[in-house]
Amino acid sequence: MTDKSFNPFEMAQTQFDSIADKLDLDEGTRELLRYNQREYHVSIPVRMDDGTVKVFRGFRVQHNDSRGPAKGGIRFHPMETINTVRALAMWMTWKCAVVDIPLGGAKGGVICDPHNLSAREQEGICRGWIRQLSRDLGPLNDVPAPDVMTTPQHMLWMLDEFETIRGSKLPGFITGKPVGMGGSMGRTEATGYGVIFNVREALKELKIPPADTTASIQGFGNVAQYAIELYNQIWGKVVCVSCWDQKDQISYSFKKLDGIDLVELKGITDRFGGIDKKKAEKSGYEILPGDAWIEQEVDILIPAALENQITGENVGRISDKVKIIAEGANGPTTPDADKEISSRKIFMIPDLLANAGGVTCSYFEQVQCNMNYFWEKDEVLGKLDTKITNAFNAVNGLAKSKKLYMRDAAYVIAVGRVVEACRERGWV
Ligand code: NAD
Fold first, then answer.
1. What percent of the chain shows pLDDT beyond 90?
2. What is the arrangement of strands in the sheet containing 237-245, beginning at the earlier edge strand?
3. Residue in 408, 312, 305, 403 with CA at minimum distance from that of residue 20
4. Which ligand 1 atom is nearest residue 332's CA?
5. Do both 276 and 143 map to the same domain?
6. What is the pTM of this model?
7. What CATH number is given to the structural domain containing 297?
8. Which 3 state secondary structure label does DSSP give 373?
9. Does 322 sit in the ligand 1 pocket, CB within 6 Å?
10. Which of 98, 213, 230, 234 gives a 20 to 30 Å CA spacing to 82?
11. Ligand 1 pocket check for 254: Cβ under 6 Å
12. CA distance 18 to 6
């Protein structure tokens, strides 16, 4: 979804290859896991508000379902590509495995820009995507969820279309639904909170009190906002956030050394996570064009916007003060930048672990839907904390005992579990 020369699927395969070498996997197993099991390309005709019909292109990719039904979000983005969706599907397989939930990996996308679509047109895309794919999705084989620029309302339209086609109530078919309509309490917070459960554990490991730390965050959407909320609750201070400016078509960073005011900034942010520059300036924020968030003198960097953001070109601008990078986004660091981060001994919390809170809570949502019994928010977040903390401890424990980079340790655990499932099923 970012620049055209960047192929996230090749990056995902490169990461896998290096772990396959470490695990000494045979050719057949490598061949199976380097590619996706199934891939769908669909055309979705939608009658627009002006009466014309516009055809939108959409995708669904199922990477591997050896550990359970495939699971993954669906994105709406004008620059969505099949290679992004392929990469994200593979990353979902590893993410579900590293937190040890019984699900496989999938991802979906539609090339569209919700900024320029009415609610009725967006509903048409949601229902059309389901009509094209309903025979290959379902609570027992592939369970979608929201992702970039898709919301609980989109999920409810999709559920309604799916249930209409199947002729029964199947709330476990899709997650991220509104609370009261089969959604789980805590799902909105889950990814951002999961990032900070990891950060909290990393700070414990480094013996740094959270109250002594500052952070800079790329993005100001769902993941970033809830990460900031919990980080503030453990007394951390965020001094810079950034967002994409739809009008100017560039990103801006918003800096306040006293600490950004989350409630105030949320009040001047649109539903796509874009902050109003004029109002922010009036409230005393310094506004810097581009990726200034990366060069702030902070203890923690949290990329929580998009893939391909910490690259060979800007990694050198990361301050020597930075001790932790927690990847809220999927695939924000390119392999060349990752090498440098590893050599600088920055404590990396890789995406598959850092942002696994979302899918873990989605799994809880499915469980609750299947029982038709819904937990209180504290119970959901408590279970989430336990799952994420256990996963962090397993990855950190392996990293320390085998002297591995955290990303490699997370992959060794995740890929190892998927390989075991494929072997036990007799696939390889
Ligand atoms: P979102 O749409 O709510 O917010 C995205 C934010 O990133 C917005 O503030 C947007 O302005 C900003 N942004 C976009 N491009 C940017 C750029 N070039 N520079 C700076 N800011 C930019 O999305 P989200 O749900 O918060 O997801 C963010 C990332 O986290 C994505 O990579 C997504 O795949 C990943 N993720 C999300 C979830 C989830 O539950 N929402 C779960 C796992 C992973």
1. 94
2. 286-289, 250-255, 237-245, 214-218, 300-303, 324-326, 347-349
3. 408
4. 32
5. no
6. 0.94
7. 3.40.50.720
8. coil
9. no
10. 98
11. no
12. 19
